[in-house]
Each structure stands twice: as C-alpha cells, then as structure tokens.
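Do me a favour: review this protein, sequence plus structure tokens, and tell me how the chain folds. Record follows.
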Amino acid sequence: MKYRETILLLAALLSACVTVPGSAPPLPPPIPSETAVADKAYVIGVDDRVQVSVWKNLDLSITVPVRPDGKISVPLIGDVQAGGLTPEQVAARVTEKLTYYMRDPAVAVIVTELRSHEFLSRVRVTGAVRTQRSMTHRQGMTVLDAVLEAGGINEFASPNRSKLYRTMRSAQGDVKTETYSVKLGEILDEGKLETNFVLLPGDVIAVPLRIF
C-alpha cells in the first residue's frame, strides 16, 4: 500500500511541473556576464564622499570627501589612498593599517555621495519622447521607469521599435555595445513586461520616429 501511495505522490508532483502551452514565464532581462559585473564595481574618485565605519569604534568612524590627491584622512592611522580603488579595497587598506593598533578590526567603507562619476552613473532616454532626459540611475530602475520620467512617448513615436543600448567592458579592456529590442508599445498599452528590462548605469534608451 505504501508503495502505491508513493507512486501516486510522484505522479502528482510531475504533473504539477508540466508547463501549459502558452503559459511560459517571461524572459528575464539581459544580465551581464560575471566579468562585466566585476568590471562594474564602483571605483572611488576625487570629490566622492565616503563613510568609513569601524565596528565598536565610533571615534574612528568618519564620513569625509576624497581630496584632490585621492586620499582620505582616517583617525589614528592618517592618510589612506581611496581614489582609483573600490570601497572593498579601501576597507582592506584601512583594516591593514588598524591591525597595528587593535585586534581584528572590522571595517566597512560606503560611498555616500557619487560626485566624481556622476555622468557614468546616469541613464539617458532619447528620440520620440516628450522630454529627452539624462537622469541619475537608481537601483531597480526599469525601461518603463525611465520612459515615464521622460514624460512618455510623443505622437510621432514608433515605440515597438525602441532599442536599449548597453556598453560593457571585457576583462581585456575591450568595449562592446549590446543592443536589445524593447517593445515599448506593448509595455505601455498592453502591460506586457517581457522587455521591461532592469537598467544599468550608462544605459541609453532610444525611441525612434514613426515611418510615414
């Protein structure tokens, strides 16, 4: 009896996994490769504002701008190079210097204001929209978010021929621009979100004019 119950349970589980024709989930947005993601790690620049937090040591925790020489001043250890490094690399340098004064320091570095890379971290919407815009990228921003912020499409647009242009850099330093088709009309008029891609800093959305 137990054997038969096991077979029936397996059959039920298998039937639940069968995909009904026409009900396939939407395709995910284009995801950059692991190399591209690594290359997207933020590099601190001059005028960026960084927060250095040392666990259980409020006197050593500071928020300061990066000086023109690329350095920041940290209590107890003095100047530390920050410009040209990622937050993780700066945290590692601060940690290394602090080990001369304390045991197992826990350091976190966060960029609180992105001043040096303002234009690299923007998203642009061009073409047949109400107002062509260059806007600050925000985590989770999608094509629809950016187009709505640009006032939506105008009466001359051909929205389903829209394109998303994404520039990526390989590990060898080669720059390549990927192009993705965006069915903007379907997104706006029908709520079909298959091409409502999540945006990355530097993305450009182009909405072409209708062909008369």
